[in-house]
Design brief:
Layout lengths: L1 E4 L5 E13 L5 E10 L14 H5 L6 E4 L2
Antiparallel strand pairs: 1-2, 1-4, 2-3
């Protein structure tokens, strides 16, 4: 699995052929397939998912790649 922090953007997590079960702040669960984009700026109204708020709040961060084996 590779987790990539996109430059000035969210974390991108990809798992080929796998499903993600993510618990949101309100306790509800969401099932996603393929890739998910998680908020890194803290401003998303749809946490833990990215909603594009990083572009509006001026979030800046370098690209990072985490290779989980």
């Amino acid at each position: 699995m590779v987790i990539k922090g996109l430059k000035n953007g969210p974390y991108e997590i990809k798992l080929e052929g796998k499903k993600f079960v993510v618990e949101k702040e309100d306790g509800s669960q969401v099932v996603k397939e393929g890739a998910i984009y998680l908020c890194r700026c803290g401003s998303s109204k749809n946490k833990p998912f990215c909603d594009g708020s990083h572009g509006r709040c001026g979030f800046e961060a370098p690209e990072v790649i985490i290779d989980v084996k």
